[in-house]
């Protein structure tokens, strides 16, 4: 087995040469000792081989230092195991690199804890990948932070799932930009919860 001392001395190139079996065998102490440079040497397959326990051992600096290659290698179970502190360390670039399938791994707690600066990192593909349960976990502040482009990524089913509290967070410019198909997704309860400004933007 590779010792902790040997792990610490590996270059990013050497790290990428480790087998998935070797990577999966790393102790949490060894994982905690990996530098951001070493972690960025991991391939998508190597990242996928990490257990949820190993992923849980990564600190915020390590999480924030992961490249898009490593992010794409994370499995939905890994993303689901992230703590809110770890999720808080993810950058907009990292969040934007997630596939629509990976996004389903984010827990409602994690989504609810996202900062507005993080939410804007989601692309339309990530938005569409969210389940209705995940959508309802977004705070009204996060809803307000979404761009018009992001709002256009919502499906009618997702829009119909928005709570009245979330509806209050919709900006009039975003509402006005919605397509007729999207507008048809709003329920009478949601429309009834809209302010005069929002209502006018919806039917302008």
From TrEMBL:
InterPro entries in the record, alphabetically? ALTTAQ_rpt (IPR045395), LRR_dom_sf (IPR032675)
User: What highest taxon heads this organism's lineage?
Assistant: Bacteria
Q: Which Pfam families would you find in this protein's record?
A: ALTTAQ_rpt
Q: Where is the signal peptide?
A: none
Name of this protein: Ice nucleation protein
**Species classification:** Bacteria, Pseudomonadati, Pseudomonadota, Alphaproteobacteria, Acetobacterales
């Amino acid at each position: 087995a590779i010792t902790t001392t040997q792990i610490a001395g590996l270059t990013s190139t050497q790290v990428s040469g480790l087998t998935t079996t070797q990577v999966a065998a790393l102790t949490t102490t060894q994982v905690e000792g990996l530098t951001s440079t070493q972690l960025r040497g991991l391939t998508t397959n190597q990242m996928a081989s990490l257990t949820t326990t190993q992923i849980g051992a990564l600190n915020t600096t390590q999480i924030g230092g992961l490249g898009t290659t490593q992010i794409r290698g994370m499995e939905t179970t890994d993303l689901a195991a992230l703590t809110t502190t770890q999720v808080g360390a993810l950058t907009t670039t990292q969040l934007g690199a997630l596939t629509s399938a990976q996004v389903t791994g984010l827990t409602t707690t994690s989504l609810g804890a996202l900062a507005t600066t993080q939410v804007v990192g989601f692309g339309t593909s990530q938005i569409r990948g969210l389940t209705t349960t995940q959508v309802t976990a977004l705070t009204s502040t996060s809803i307000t932070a979404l761009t018009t482009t992001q709002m256009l990524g919502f499906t009618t089913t997702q829009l119909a799932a928005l709570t009245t509290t979330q509806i209050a967070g919709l900006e009039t410019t975003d509402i006005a930009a919605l397509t007729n198909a999207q507008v048809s997704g709003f329920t009478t309860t949601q429309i009834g919860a809209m302010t005069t400004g929002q209502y006018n933007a919806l039917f302008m």
